[in-house]
Amino acid sequence: MADLLLGQVLSFTGDPFLMGPEAARHESHGAVLVEGGRIRATGPADALRAAYPQARVTDYGRALISAGFVDAHVHYPQTAIIASWGKRLIDWLNLYTFPEEMRFADPAYAEEIATRYTGLALAHGTTSFCTYSTIHPASVDTIFGAAQARNMRIWAGKTCMDRNAPEGLRDTAQSAYDDSRALLEKWHGVDRLSYVITPRFSPTSTPEQLAALGGLWREYPDCLMQTHLSEQTDEIDWVKGLFPQSRDYLDTYEAQGLLAEGAIFGHAIHLTPRERARLKESGASLIHCPTSNTFIGSGLFDMAGLKAEGQRIGLATDTGGGSSFSMLRTMAAAYEVAQLRGTALHPSQLWWLATQGSAQSLRAGHLIGNIAPGMEADLVVVDLASTPAIEQATRRAGDIWQAIFPTIMLGDDRAIRATWVGGKAT
Questions:
Q1: What pLDDT, in 10s, does the model give residues 65-102?
Q2: How far is CA 59 from the centre of its chain?
Q3: Which residue, 288, 382, 336, is CA-closest to 60?
Q4: Contact between residue 128 and residue 70 where contact means Cβ atoms under 8 Å apart
Q5: Cα–Cα distance measured from residue 205 to residue 112, given in angstroms and rounded to the nearest whole number
Q6: Which of 110, 215, 258, 411 is positioned for an S-S bond with 328, CB 3.0–4.6 A?
Q7: Per-residue confidence (pLDDT) for residue 93, from 0 to 100
Q8: CA distances (Å), 360 to each of 156, 249, 285, 370, in order?
Q9: Which alpha helices (H) appear in 103-195, and where do they start and end?
């Protein structure tokens, strides 16, 4: 049976960074028809109720029905260490990340965290995510298994490191290739699951390992490749010392075949003019991780400048370096970071980044991240009056953006009234 969801419906016909708020479409008394895991129709509620009288109706009143949030850069193995007392990136890795990731040698622990993380993601309205696992193949199996059980569309990959990491977290160039290929062939394209080739970042991979993964990507170009780029200035200095032959940080990847459309670079804060030009030319994606960037003092992402250049940009929590599982909080942080750089991002731009922008950065904008006929039915229903503080601000709203903005700035999982994945309420 088809489901007809009633409420305020928000969708996009284009990029509001290019078209302004007019890129968004708002139906104040709208409806979304869901059948067979996909969106079959959307439009005014009265018209759809008349057209589909046999549909099962769920009326969400004045709640906002949106595409589910898409988190484009996550470390699900860091779920248990989120909000650990802050250090700089390299210290944080050594003090918190690496010891926690060592625990994923135990498949039972990996399964526990994978189940916990996917539950937390859905509770915050996140229906898709792209995650790093650990060096252990079982950590990939468990996150894919947890997502598969919930019919989620996700991307995940084995994190590869063959230097500058504890012995229990190092592989080799050959084992990174072999393990990644075996996992890719096992999971890629199964149900709603996609494999992503995953060198952690250049400081923890030798040129030989990066080259091996570049070779794997050439064999499977329909996969994504994710890594980190120019997160902190001391990290960049470290890379210069490790790769004296390279022109810049990006070149450490480019020289090994890891720069092309489908490359997903987390952070990308301190970029040189050459790097910006090559990223744009290649069609790679840059993922803004605002709560992480402020939490460990990395810097302020140049959203306005990079979008003006035509860069492809997504948004992410960066769990657990990021300080929240919520894409609402992440939107708020993106707004605050942009303000510090002299730009006030419009609510339409923030919402687009968390949905269609992130989906496009993962080459999945035709599948998820928007409400339109034929799209997969991953939806979030947002209460725009979830707390007294939000409600009193929303009550004064003169338009939909004034109504949405308090939830962006003050909202959390209490604002998530319902989450639909693959056409079913979770």
A1: 999 999 999 999 999 989 888 777 778 788 888 999 99
A2: 29
A3: 382
A4: yes
A5: 28
A6: 411
A7: 81
A8: 17, 24, 9, 10
A9: 107-123, 137-149, 173-187
Mind listing the pLDDT tens digit for each residue in 240-252?
999 999 999 999 9
Residue 218, burial from CB neighbour count under 10 angstroms (0-12, 13-18, 19+): exposed
As a residue count, the chain comes to 426
Alpha carbon separation from 316 to 72, 293, 355 (Å, rounded): 5, 11, 10
pLDDT recorded at residue 91: 81
Q: Any idea what DSSP says for residue 173?
A: H
133, 180 Cβ separation under 8 angstroms: no
Cβ neighbors of 195 (< 8 A, separation 6 or more) are: 155, 156, 157, 180, 183, 184, 187, 188, 220, 223
Measuring CA to CA, which residue among 384, 366, 368 is closest to residue 376?
368
**Distance from first CA to last CA of the chain, Å, rounded?**
17
Strand partners, 267: 229
Q: What are the DSSP E strand ranges found in 268-387?
A: 285-288, 312-315, 379-382
Tell me the average pLDDT across 390-399: 95
Amino acid letter at 366?
H
Cα angle vertex 200, ends 199, 202, to 5°? 80
